Fold Transposon Ty3-I Gag-Pol polyprotein.
Amino acid sequence: MQRLPIQIQQILSVSGDNLQALSKMPDSIFEISKDDLVASVSDNFHSPDVNKFENRLAAIENRLSRLEFRCRSLSLGNTEVRSSNKRKYANGTKINTFGTKLITLNLELKRKFQWPFILASVSKLILGADFLEDYSLLVDIKRKKLLDGASAVGLEKPISANECMYVATVQGDSPYVKLLLKFSDITKPSQPKPAFHVKHNIEHHIETRGPPVFSKARRLDPEKLQAAKREFQYMVSQGWCRPSKSAWASPLHMVLKKDDWKSCEDYRRLNNQTIPDRFPIPHVHDLAHNLFNKKIFSTIDLVRAYHQIPVAAADVPKTAVITPFGLFEFLFMPFGLCNAVQTFQRFMYEIVGDLDYWFVYLDDVLIASTDESEHLKHLDRFQKYGLEVHTEKCVFRQLSVKFLCYLISEKGIEPLPDRVKAINEFQQPKFIKDLRLFLALLNFYRRFLKNAAHEQSLLSDYLKGAKKNDTRLINWTEEAKLAFESCKNSLAMYTLLV
């Protein structure tokens, strides 16, 4: 009765009827006076049950919105779609995004985590605060561990700390910043490049003998198939390839690179029928001749270098690749083609062949100058020919740079310190194949070593008549052990090339 309006309580309190009759009276009173009775509550009254219900309702609405977002991502079929979200780095550079993909993570926390991640062109993967909040994950900064707040389980393996613990800024008035801003069209992320946007006349030609060669599509397991679809959808969207009706068909091969599958066109049958191009490829040892009196260095990284050269229209059908989901042909030069290296080297020679302060080895570019004023003029060549550079991987205006596994400086050319350390700490090999690996690492820097043939003669004797992956044990003699240690020390006392 205490829950009834006060007026009805007063009427019932003076009634002499039994309890059963009293229970029926409130309904009759409501029917008679429903227009006169107004039940009201204070607007500042909230019982604990109401508060709990409101919080629960808000949590359900939040979960429903996240579930709706996941369903939208799942409906994409795990394919890449151009995202309208605009994201930028701290320095203002645009981050290229390609929609979302539903991914299941195994963080070794006794449960798996499914989340629609944004696909973007970034060097490091990021787990956002929304992901951590949704799954009640906690980051123990002191112990560098990830904790599961829902199950009270911690990740046994510590979280590796990022070496970049600061934000680096560049002075806005730096001449190199002004230079990059001036040539913004060569430093932007790679965009579709229709033929009419190409600023050079170099094309890749495929001269062949005999009739067209073709192969059947190779079957792929589900993981490789999805990776191949994503790759080709991206290349079609960029304008690098298109669906084909060619009589030529080379098979598709998938290779694992950095925990992801990448497509690799198998052009071996096509290459066997291709007439070779004899354009010379520079020798890396010729680099030393161009470095005399050079003091300032930069290295340039090109964005998908081969895809910046179009294939001749008549030869586009020859590049066709057959996949389980269709036949595609390349409008721009893909990897794996016979003569692709020669075509690209010819192209780079056309750009910088007359300049002694450039050294080009395939798609690796080194600029060496005597002073800054000369150094600032060099990017003009890239703009003229429409090449795009990857600014995040370029190194500008340094007194020393790493180039082709060498350290280049005003002093000359020398081995990389970390390579020297790795060889110096190499354990005495037990098997023939391990000794072959050691000698291969050492002889990469052979021209820095004095009397290399004599020093390595005892070790080379073990390789006579041995197969490539020979697993026979080595019977080390005292002389061979001394020779092994001497070879390691010889690189530590290398001769500087000037």
About this structure: Confidence is low (pLDDT under 50) at residues 35-45, 76-84, 192-196. The first helix runs from residue 6 to 13. The chain has three domains: 1-16+86-169, 222-412, 416-493.
